[in-house]
Amino acid sequence: MPKKQSNVDVWLGRETPRVRKALESASRHFGSDSRLTVHTLEAVYGRESSFGTMMRKPGSSAAAGHFHLEPKTARRYGLNVSKKNDERFDINKSSSAAARYLRDLDKAFSKKTTIWGPSKTVPVNSASERKKFVVGAYNAGERHIADAQRLAQKAGRDPRLWSDVQKFLESASPKKDRAKEKAREIQQYVEKVLLYEIEFAQKSPAGKGKTAKKGEYRCTEGGRWVTIDDRPVYIC
Question: How far apart are CA 182 and CA 205, in angstroms?
Fold first, then answer.
């Protein structure tokens, strides 16, 4: 029986040299003090549009394009959004906008930042822990995550730990009719993106300056088995 491909395997099959170059170029927006890399960007790209195969319609008022950016967010980063010219569907411009958005989310959660009115972030000093908040905010918006931090703090939990904050995503949801569904979506999104990122780091030639050969990148310090998309994957 042929070995089942993981989502990352499928997405890497769609990562043409042009796409890889766009992602590598966009990842240069990440600061050296963050844990964001080209593999974070690959993971978000895969989760959002399955590497450009599920982008929706140009000019859509909903999230669309390679990185499923909302029109408001896309325009914030200088992209045109219209039926005739929707730059969310340009891999170079959309990946750059997505990377800058992730970078700014990382900055927002690295210090106390006013998002809107009473919504303020609680600084998360650990870069690796902060990445969970960044990925969650990419999916749900920084205000939703900041409000969940505030509720966690009010309840005596640690607003700097994602494991504590995620328990308050439902209460912090602005859409009460689907709050439980959205909270679960955010939790799964963070979990999947971070696992995809690890698998991309193992398998992707992006950011390595050369074409990866089969079996070239192996664990040198042990690892563990995890389940990604109902498939066991060995993670370094």
Answer: 34
Residue 5 or residue 217, greater confidence? 5
Separation of alpha carbons 87 and 22, rounded Å: 14
| Per-residue pLDDT tens digits for 81-106 | 999 999 999 999 999 999 999 999 99
Contact between 188 and 38 (Cβ < 8 Å):
no
What six digits make up the tokens of 121? 């972030």
Q: Which residues pair with 228 in a beta bridge?
A: 231
- From the centroid of its chain, how far is CA 177? 25
- Label the pairing between strands 119-120 and 231-235: unpaired
Per the structure block, which two tokens stand in for 90? 């340009």
Predicted TM-score (pTM) of the model is 0.87
Orientation of helix 17-26 relative to helix 38-49, angle to 10° = 120
For residues 62 and 215, the answer to whether their CB atoms sit within 8 Å is no
Q: Could you say which DSSP state residue 220 is in?
A: S
If you search the block for the tokens 């099959």, which residue do you land on?
Answer: 13
Task: Output the CA angle 176-150-112, nearest 5 degrees.
Answer: 130
pLDDT digit string, tens, across residues 109-124: 999 999 988 899 999 9
- Calculate ∠ Cα 68-71-73, nearest 5°: 80
Strand partners, 231: 228
The H or E element containing residue 226 is strand 224-228
Q: Which amino acid is at 127?
A: A
